[in-house]
Amino acid sequence: MTEEISRVSQLRPARPHVVIIGGGFAGLACARSLGNAEIDVTVIDRRNHNLFQPLLYQVATAALSPADISEPIRRTLGRYRNIKVMLAEVNGVDPTTKSVRFDDGGAVSYDHLVIATGSEYNYFGHDEWRAWAPGLKTIHEARLIRQRLLVAFEKAERTDDPEEKQRLLTSVVIGGGPTGVEMAGAIAELGRFMITRDFRDLSPNHFKVILIEAAPRLLAAFPENLARYAERSLVEGGVQVLTNTPVENITKSEVIAGGRTFSTGCVVWGAGVKASPAASWLGIEGKAGGRIPVEPDLAVQGFNDIYAIGDTALGMGESGKPLAALAQVAKQQGDYLGEALKAKLLDGRAPEAFRFRDRGNTAVIGRNAAIFDFGTWQMKGRLAWLLWAMVHVYLLVNFEKRLLVSIQWIWRYATRQRGARIIDENAATQVPASTRRTET
């Protein structure tokens, strides 16, 4: 009887194996689309959790805790019995043997490979700045920024030196894109509240937030009228905005930009991103910031069994321009590719080309201020802020996170309290110089 079962098992065709590298927006969307299909799926990530990066700035400014916007990948995908999760650091791909290599010497084979390894901050040849100007791509970096902000206030409370007090209470945000704008507005709001309520020896006159942008204006991806509104709102909220001001150097306590020196207690980097080094794994040259060129079906050019999605992929929109590295692009590509792989592997059907459906571009500036660009029409102010909040709550990974974040936002709006103002006395004071990659 055992021999008969073994013989039948050998005759049964093996199920196709899809390996997905990256557990961010794109990778998780693809995995969910493949969930419970007659396909074996392995999701590999260097971290054990997914992260809702659009709200990471709120962790950095003590509005939310890391657990509010992240969840273990195993929990997210646990209900799909055909999906296996692996915690590993990928350092290479061998298309000849169809295997993915790990930095600990291990490997896993694949029939079809999906690369969704996201992006990292681009320091434009000055990676030494990373130690003093962390970006906002990981929980570690958000906690580090929060630590530096809160410690700076505590030190400023104790010092009797007016210049040192001014330095500690000056925060510099580099980059005038959505991340920089959101971060500058959030720091300004946090600082005003803490100084007026919780610190006895600090004055609002000492507090300063400086937003530095090398380009002529903020928010280059948005229409100019919305960018002007954002800048005006930031200035009204106490942020000093400097455009046409390229950064020349960053040290532990200073930023040199546009020929001027700014003494500071905290620096945040948000000046640009580049793709993960996944292109080098395939022995190809990345384009437009290291992104991997893909065909209309998201297959990597020159490979029929390897796909790239999310920030690491260079896909073209219907206008002929590259798709932006946005969460909505990554999620739609993941959903599409999961369904396309099911059609191809289970039914033998060739999928139609991927089409991105623009849901609008948004940025929040501060309390009751945000902008939305839907292409044919626009929105700004309180209504845009409310819509921004609803969209971001909806996009959180599950009902529990949506409920927790909603309650905290309502409480924070009513009281202006920030409940995540925890300082770890043993926390590291700088990020490692090594590159930190995030999966999207």
Q: What is the CATH class of the largest domain?
A: Alpha Beta
- First-to-last CA distance: 49 Å
Tell me which oligomeric state these chains represent.
single chain
Unreliable residue stretches: 4-9, 428-440
Helix count, DSSP H or I runs of 4 or more residues: 12
Question: How many beta strands in the DSSP annotation?
Answer: 24
Roughly how much helix do the residues carry, as a percent range?
A: 25-40%
Mean pLDDT: 91
**Over the alpha carbons, how many angstroms does the gyration radius reach?**
23 Å
Domains, number:
2
What can you see in these coordinates?
The protein has two domains: 13-46 and 88-121 and 274-347, FAD/NAD(P)-binding domain (3-Layer(bba) Sandwich); 127-271 and 361-415, 3-Layer(bba) Sandwich (FAD/NAD(P)-binding domain). 33% of the residues lie in helices and 22% in strands. It is built from twelve helices and 24 strands. It has helices at residues 2-11, 25-33, 56-60, 73-77, 139-158, 162-168, 178-197, 224-236, 278-281, 327-347, 382-395, 399-415, and strands spanning 17-21, 40-45, 49-51, 70-72, 83-87, 90-94, 99-102, 107-109, 112-115, 119-121, 170-174, 208-212, 239-242, 247-250, 254-257, 260-263, 266-269, 273-275, 292-293, 306-308, 313-314, 361-366, 369-373, 378-380. The strands form eight sheets. A five-stranded parallel sheet has the order 5-2-1-9-20. Strands 13-12-11-17 form a four-stranded parallel sheet. Strand 12, helix 8 (224-236) and strand 13 (239-242) form a beta-alpha-beta unit. The radius of gyration is 23 Å and the shape is elongated. It starts with a helix and ends in a 25-residue tail after the last helix.
